[in-house]
């Protein structure tokens, strides 16, 4: 049985086991409209039901997945003009960070930058000590470096990223294929481009999909 790398609960629950592939999502720091706050509230209520054993894991997983998709759909349509991740100089900084940690902390399967949030598909790998890095530590490193670089580039101060993040482990090859398709199709769904290949700020390494 795989060892647990991390188990904690912030605004959302997080559990990580060795060897898993994870879909990670986080956004820029900005005030969310009520419709998205309501979705997050439903997700928290659902998590409490699971914690109290009031619903089965299968029901929890299905409903949580639906709410996550709704959350992401609203984010994709939300206009946040103060800062746009897809501006070339900003996007290059974020993409550079993703690639820097490849093979150091994780295998980089896929990513997609959206105007106000991002999707990352990774598989954490053992570091020099033999331990697996925590997703929370990986994200902290990426957020810290990119925030410093982006703020310096734009001459701004203050918080750049939201504190919380979504994580979901990939269950099987079919789930992997669906997740990759979903990540790469995000810009099309948001009507930013007509086809996934037309989006400059996305990536998929097909050589890793069989691992």
CATH superfamily heading of the largest domain: Transposase IS200-like
Low-confidence stretches: none
Count of folded domains = 2
Major β-sheet profile: 5 strands, antiparallel
- In helices, the fraction of residues equals 40-55%
| Total strand segments | 7
How far apart lie the N and C ends? 18 Å
Overall form: globular
Report the CATH architecture of the largest domain: 2-Layer Sandwich
Average pLDDT: 86
Which sequence of SSEs, written as H and E, runs from N to C?
A: EEEHHHEEHEHE
- Placed side by side, the strands forming the largest sheet appear as 6-3-5-4-7
As for the CATH topology of the largest domain, it is Alpha-Beta Plaits
Indicate the multimeric state: single chain
Mind telling me the C-alpha Rg? 17 Å
> Hey, roughly how much beta strand do the residues contain?
15-25%
CATH hierarchy, class of the largest domain: Alpha Beta
Number of helices: 5
Give the class from helix and strand content and strand pairing. alpha+beta
